[in-house]
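Deliverable D4.2, example record:
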Amino acid sequence: MEHLERLENNWLYSRMAEEEVLLQKILDFAIFQNKLDKNTLTTKELNNELNLEDNNTMSKEDKISLIILKYEKEIQEKTQKLIDLYKDQSSNELDTIRFESTNI
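Output generated by the structure prediction step:
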């Protein structure tokens, strides 16, 4: 519960959490790419990555393409979430500056 409250109420904590999630996703993709480059991926690993049954008949190339697409989409979503977090904070800071510089 404390973690959720900190995520909601503490911009720096939220940003760090989002950055960590993004970096982990990038690391996972890099590990996948490394295995792909070394040609050490098994059919079972590909199926697990896509949550497919072991008896799935999809080609290895199609599975790899789907996994790459999945990682790219997830990384793009995480990046956009982080950008939105920065935009919201910038907007809040600008509102504060406008309020503080207003002569009453």
